[in-house]
Amino acid sequence: MSTSTTIRPPGGSGPEGPASRPGRSPKSIAVWVAVALVGATCWTVLALSRDESVSALWVLFAAISSYVIAYRFYSRFIAYQVLRLDDTRATPAERLHDGTDFELTDRRVLFGHHFAAIAGAGPLVGPVLAAQMGYLPGTIWIIVGVIIAGAVQDMLVLFFSMRRDGKSLGQMVREEIGVVGGVAALIAVFSIMIIILAVLALVVVNALAESPWGVFSIGLTIPIAFFMGFYLRYLRPGRVLEVTAVGFALLMLAIVGGGYVEAWGLANALTLSKETLTIMLVVYGFVASILPVWMLLTPRDYLSTFMKIGVILLLAVGLVLARPVLENEAVTSFATAGNGPVFAGKLFPFLFITIACGALSGFHALISSGTTPKMLAKESQVRMIGYGGMLMESFVAISALIAASVIDQGLYFAINAPAGVTGGTVDGAVAFVNGLGFSLTPDQLQAAADAVEEDLVSRTGGAPTLALGIALIFSEAFGGGATAFWYHFAIMFEALFILTAVDAGTRVGRFMLQDTIGNLWPRFADTRWKPAAWTASAAVVCCWGYMLYVGVTDPLGGINQLFPLFGIANQLLAAIALTLCVTLFLKHGWLRYVWVPAIPLVWDLVVTLTASYEKVFSSDPTIGYFAQADRYRTALDAGEVLAPATDVSQMDTVIFNSTVNGILQASFALLVIVIVANAAVIWARALRVGSLSTTEVPAVPSRIVAPSDFIATREEKAAVAAWEAEQAETVGSRR
Amino acid sequence: MRASAGPVAPAPGPVRRAVAGVWWYLRELSGEAQWDHYLERCDRDGVVPMTRREFERHRDDHREGSTQNRCC
Fold this sequence. Notes:
The complex is a heterodimer.
Chain A: E1 13-14, E2 17-18, H1 26-48, E3 54-55, H2 56-82, H3 92-95, H4 107-118, H5 122-130, H6 135-162, H7 169-176, H8 179-208, H9 212-235, H10 240-258, H11 267-270, H12 274-290, H13 297-322, E4 325-326, H14 334-337, H15 347-354, H16 364-368, H17 381-405, H18 409-416, H19 419-422, H20 426-436, H21 442-452, H22 463-478, H23 483-518, H24 530-553, H25 558-588, H26 595-617, H27 625-637, H28 648-689, H29 714-734
Antiparallel strand pairs in A: 1-2, 3-4
Chain B: H1 14-30, H2 34-45, H3 52-64
């Protein structure tokens, strides 16, 4: 019986696309015309509104209607015309099913896993910082960027990795482009990950420094996670949901309890400096990465995943209920003058590297290759998981941009300007912000700080700004005036998944390092061999810990020094991924459609290489790292101390940090140029011959039936039901 | 998982179905449903299943040797 199982694509979808779907019924045409009209109206309002109050809902609905249209039309075009997703072909999960890595997963569940893996603090931080240029440039870039570039990259990488049994980005670059490119990609991926971890950790340090409430509640997540881990290991194995519910309740108590640290006399003990927090975070990162994962990492991941999905849904509901008005201007003068206090540089190229996650994020290529492709049930699901998952992240970025833009502008700059210019005092901040031309009184600033029970001056890093915006929206939407609670709830939400990213990233870095050194000394590659695991963990923690320390101690303000490095690094990773995609298009002979990955690649290279060039060679000391080092060196030689440095050793710190950042920046750009140059050789060869052989795994017929999209069509449901009945019969006859 | 083993309920109302759907989704997403799938597999193949504790230990061990990256 089992031998006669027919191979049946779901809903009649073949390489040419689901032909049986009623795509052109009058009803569907009417629906899509309506969506297009909503989108066009929102965009028109955003384009024409100046110097008047604009509701945040225009931004929200411009985004949603654009996403829906892009998903329906562009991603479908890529899926069926360009990639020719083929549901008659078995996926790696079907062919290599082993119940662990290669596992057939329901598409909606896999969407949740994939989304939880790609979305973190990045789409929350970048848009908040970019709000200094106004809400409009960020909105346009997030929406257009994700449709043309970010979601395309995620979908293509997922597709190519799926057709290669879930190979990693680095492996694919080595096999499809060449050894030189492969080695460069390996170094680039590793070092970019270190920078990302350092910057994320810096966001947490900045949010928790001098904040006993924050330290109390975030600190308690560690014992809560331990409790959950031991519960699952010894008390009731496998009962994840009940222990997560208990963990969540404890988390809420931890946030509420934070409000009483002063009353309990813990305030002094929990008021920690940035340096102390850095040391604690480094020690924590090391311990977390060598402990068994069931103790800390897995249970915290449950909490962070549910918090992530829950808060994002809550934020969407909150925005619609609160209907906040944007306080931010559409485009501020910083966009053209390039002299903003949050980060230096003009709109081009710096907006496009400040907002990476949410528009185009190279890091996603590491997740779209590797884990997710091994779990796909059908090829056609690449569309909803790759393209759809990234649209969802973009929605998170838009929400963050809105949250930052509903804050009074004077307040926004008081929070985000580095301590070097505000002096860290209310009066200093007010004077600085008034100097920028925004109105803010000391009373207003104090009132805002009192409402959230935190000091707000120069709380850079994006997290406090976002938390304040979320607190404003939630207390408006859900009433109760619990602004301080919502503020710390938002801080918790962000810190929780940054810490999860730090643990997980350290472990991934450790595995990469062990694997690489394992090529020379095989025993080192054994991830269960303690000495190797410990030394590799220590090495990874030291790398990001050092960069974190550089950021924390920088007199110029760590975020505005390191964030550009982070953004450019992330976008350079995207350049590597898109280079691989272009290479594979040409090798497959899909010249006609090569513009699909080539347009984002060219745009990304122009942006990142311009940004890198300016960061390395600009003579403006606020932009160029080396110009900055020179300026301080010259002053030091002349025996002067330049503000914001207050003594000679701070002058030395600035010179040293700027030089380190400049060298890193230059090396990243060089690595990418090496990879692109290596790929160009292959492109020329492929163009000459027409196509080249690739490592794509030969097609094997699929026996599984499963729907393609979020919502199964009637035909798909019928096909699945018929197939399941047949399966049951097969099993029955085998018994 | 079985390909699209959606919530199968004997024709309850829309609210019941939605709650059952959310519950199914949470159990699948958290991996709690892995145990059910394992039992189904054992049943189908006629194998005596290990205890839940052993099964979860086995999953922990597997997680120990693999990584799941979390993005920025």
